Each structure stands twice: as C-alpha cells, then as structure tokens.
Amino acid sequence: MVQTMTLREQIAALIKTGLEQVQAAGDLPAFEVPDFIPIAPSRHDSHGDYGSPVCMGLARVLHKAPIQIAKAVAAHIPQAEFVEQVEVAPPGYINVKFSADWLARQVPVVLAAGECWGNITLGQGERIQVEFVSANPTGPITIGSARNAVLGDTLASVFEAAGYDVTREYYVNDAGSKVRNFGASILSRYANLLGVDMPFPEKGYPGDYVTVLAQELVDARGPHYLELDSDAAVRELAVWGIDRMLEGVQDDLAQLRVSFDTWRHEKSLYAEGIFDEMMQKLRESGYVVEHDDAVWFRSDDLEKDAVLIRSPQVIPDPEDRPTYLASDIAYVWDKLTLRGFDKAVYIWGADHHGDVPRVQSAARAIGLDVERLVFVLYQLVTLRRGGEEVRMSKSSGEFVTLRELVDEVGPDPIRFMMLTRTVDVKLDFDLDLAVEQSDRNPVYYVQYAHTRIAGVLRKAEEEGLDPFVTGDPALLTHPSELALIRKMVALPDIIALSAENLAPHHLTTYASELAALFHVFYHECRIISLDEGDVELTKARLMLVRAAKVVLARVLHLMGMDAPERM
Question: What DSSP string runs through 475-494?
C-alpha cells in the first residue's frame, strides 16, 4: 500500500481550500494564496494533532490580526473524514484534531499494508543515486566511516520508501599518489620480512595491516616482487592491495548490514576517456588555465583557482597528477549524463565543505544543473570508553576498525546511535551505553517494545486465543490506545520529512516515541482478558498490538536494524 498524500499534505490541502473559499465568499480581501502551507505536529494535546501558522504570515498582507484571519479561514475549511475538529488558537494558529473513530479504523489499514506501511509517492520514481562511505581503500574501514555508512544506507532506504528509484554506490579511489604510496608501503614491509632493508615511504601507511598483507605475499610468492623493477612492483602491489582491502571493506560493511548496488572505480573514469573528455570540454569553454607548472580550474564562482593536474615538480608520475577535483568532474558527468541519474546525493564529512563549491562550479562549467547535486555534510564521531576519548588515525596506524566496533557492540546499537543526532552536530559514541541493557540505552528501549509485543502475542496463544484474530477497532477508545494509533499513522509523514530534509535522525526520535507510547498502553490497558465480557475488547486490542508490531518493525528495518522476537 502506497499513500499518495501524507496527513500533512491532506491538512495543507484543506487549509488551502479554506484560504481560497474565504476570498470567494468575500469574508477577506483578495490575496495570493501561498503555495506552501506550513504544517507541524502540535506540542500540546489541547491544541489538537497538527497546526498551521499560515495566517500569521498573512497579517501584514491583509492588515488584520492573525487570529481574525484564522477564524475566517477556519470557517471555510471543508469537512474531511479524518478531522474531528478545526480550532483557532492565539495568536493565529489553525489547529486540526483527528477523529477518534477514524484513528481506530486505521488499525486494519496498517495491518493490511504490513511491511509497506509508510510508503509514499513523493519521489514519483525519480532516479536518485546515493554515493556514500567511499573511503580510500588504503586501509580497513574505521569507525570514522561508520556514521557515513549508516547515514547513506538509511537515507537510501528512506528514499526508497518515499517512492524514489535508488542506487547505492561506493566510489573507489584507486588512482593517484595515495595508491602509489600504499603500494610502496606494502613493498617496504614485504622486503623487510625477507631480510632486505628497504626504506619506508615518507607518506606511507604504517598500520599493522600493511605488515599482514606483506606476510601474505611472502607466504604466497616468496621473493618474487623483489625480482621486479621497483616501479612495476609498486604498481602491482598497489592493485593487489586495493583488491584485498576492498574484500575486507565489503565484508566489514556487510557486518553493519550495508551493501551497495554498484562499485565505481576512479581508474575507470580515466580508462573510459571520461576525464579527457571533461578536460577538453573545460578547455574549450575557457575554464582551464596553466601556471606554476600545473593545470588549474578557474571560474568566477570561486575565490581562487583550483588545481586539476599537479606540477611534475610535485608529482613525477603523470598518472598520479590529477587531483580529486579532476576525478570528481569526470564522476559527476558520469553520474548525471552518462548514467542519467536525476539526482546525485553525496554523503561527505564536514571537512569536505570546501570541496562542495568547487564541484558545483565545475558541474556548472560543463553544463550540468547544480540543483541535481545534493550534499549531506556530517560532523565526525568521537568514540568514548569510560568517559575517555579513544583516539584514532589511519595514517598513523592507530585506529579502531569498524569490524572491532561491530564485534564489541553489534550492528544495531551502532546504527541507532549514529542516527540520534542531526548531521550537523558532532556525535559522541558511548561504548558503555551501547552495550547496556536498560532503558537508558535507546536501542534496547525500542527493541524491547517489539519483543514485548511478541511476548503478548505468544501469551495470547498460550491462553488458547488466536493472536491473529480480527476484532472491532471501534472498541479502541482508551486515551493510551488512541495516542499509540496517532503515532502509528504519523510514519508516512516521518518518511516524507526525512526524505525532504535529508534528516534520517527523525526515525530514531519517532521509534523512541512510538516505543514509549506502546509501553504506556501496555501498562494502562489490560490487553488479554479471558472474562466473557472482555472477549471483543481483547480481540480489538490484539489487533492494535499486531499493528504496533508492524510499525515498530517497519521503522527498525528502515534504520537497518533487527526487530527481535526475544531479547
């Protein structure tokens, strides 16, 4: 089941109709009805379920008090089956309260939708590529990439639920000087293991994993690579090392339940001639200049030139001279033109904020619409244990790998906790809290709600009841029942909000609130009663329990997490 309009959109449409009809009736002067009607959940139960401040924005135009405008508009808002009441509140809000009967009728609707509950048509099948993680394959995936992985994968899931045609992609940086330095690092360790004193490269990778790779080569090939020209050996070992690292990357990310539809290699952009084509395009358009022995991108959009191809005085090998920007230009052309994605979403660390205007400017220079490029810049993660920060650095060889983190706390706490903050806020990952089995741990709290529901359904079966019985939802009138249903029907809006604002943190907030409301319902309402007079109410409440289970599982799965039956 896919919803064509979310509740917010339906409420906005009602208010827009009210704005149009109040003019037609002559109750307010003519004015331009805004295209966008802001709608937000009410903060207090007394204010209904959703409210809009649209009338406050019209006060200046109509030269009337916002509350007078709101009262006039509210009188012309048409009836709808899901609306029980439209009220006006100072200083000029229009508040909408859902019908209790309508809410109760949504329980079988949720059950019928099942795992598809929450799906909407926002994307209209638009092709969207989400490129994420894309860590340099010169070492294992560290927890520094964990937030990137979780954000990208969850956003992709949200986009799919919102009706987009989504491709998940990992961009493999397998070209340039870093790759050469990686190959040289392996060769040095390899030679050392064979008793040959070979200096370690100045910009090499000193981590123990390089020695492990070198030992693997010694065991498999003996002194073979010492018999080759050193340049040839470095090239071969770089290619071999990248392949070995990518095997580990795929495996480690799989442990976090992250996978990709495509793996696009930077080298292929050169091998397929895309880079040369873009350089020619930029030259012909006057965006390329040469000075200081280097090739630069020059645009009025930028404060200063950006290097495309470095000087041979800096990088001797011609194949290693193109910069990341040079590859990014070829890559964006590949995404939007050659492969025809409608939008390309980049998940980058906040330290790449300076790269965004350069990529946008270059995209504009080669004739692309920069509105099709979407950048999500996230702040980094600090890992803490016992209140102390755990430091890491891939270049120094001191780092915590993603695999180590998954082995210690499991994928679910990582995924949930990486989503608990907005992307522009630094995130502290508390290892101690992640493994704590208590209500303090938000992951445990949410998943426990699902297991509690599973327990209720098992209990019903043990009592000789059919847990999948159909009941009369009209019997669901208790405030805690209606509060739970209100939250359940909000999932499509949460998916829309997360997709439109590139903000998957809304899912963790929603999951926590939904779990809390189920726990309240569980304590305030007797779900299973064998008393003769309670049979029909028990059936209805078992329906509600199953529907809550559907919604909790759906939001957990959107976040890439398990919905456990037992804990």
Answer: G--SHHHHHHHHHHTTHHHH
How many whole angstroms separate alpha carbon 31 and alpha carbon 309? 56
Whole-angstrom Cα distance, residue 443 to residue 517?
Answer: 16
Tokens matching residue 379: 């702040």
The verdict on pTM exceeding 0.90 is: yes
DSSP at 140: P
Chain segment 155-184, per-residue pLDDT in tens: 999 999 999 999 999 999 999 999 999 999
Which among 1, 29, 214, 223 has a CA at the least distance from the CA of 118? Answer: 1
Question: Helix axis angle, 402-409 relative to 146-161, nearest 10°?
Answer: 70
Rounded Cα distance, 156 and 535, in Å: 44
3-state SS class at 81: coil
**Mean pLDDT along residues 266-286:** 97
Q: Report the pLDDT value the prediction gives residue 9, as an integer from 0 to 100.
A: 96
Which residues, in sequence order, are CB contacts of 66 under 8 Å at separation 6+? 55, 56, 58, 59, 91, 92
Handedness of CA 359, 361, 364, 370 (dihedral sign): positive
* Confidence at residue 394, expressed as pLDDT on a 0 to 100 scale: 46
Contacts of 65 (CB under 8 A, 6+ apart): 59, 91, 92
CA distances from 37 to 9, 56, 350 (A): 9, 12, 32
Kindly give the pairing relationship between strand 373-378 and strand 343-349.
parallel
Nearest to 107 by CA among 412, 351, 358, 470: 470
* Structural domains present in the chain: 7-98 (3.30.1360.70), 177-255 (no CATH), 440-558 (1.10.730.10)
Q: Count CB-CB contacts under 10 A for residue 4.
A: 10
Residue keyed to tokens 């294992």: 140
CA separation for the pair 103, 107 (Å, rounded): 8
Segment 105-110 shows an average pLDDT of: 98
What is the distance between the alpha carbons of residues 552 and 446, in angstroms, rounded to a whole number?
Answer: 8
Report the Cα 266 to chain-centroid distance in Å: 24
From residue 474, give the alpha-carbon distance in Å to each of 105, 106, 112, 280, 437. Answer: 7, 10, 17, 69, 37
In whole angstroms, how large is the CA radius of gyration of the chain? 29
Going by C-alpha positions, the residue among 398, 402, 390, 331 that lies closest to residue 362 is: 331
The Cα 130–Cα 402 span in angstroms is: 21
My answer on whether omega of the bond before 53 falls inside 30° of 0, hence cis, is no
The two tokens of residue 126 are 């638009």
d(CA 306, CA 357): 11
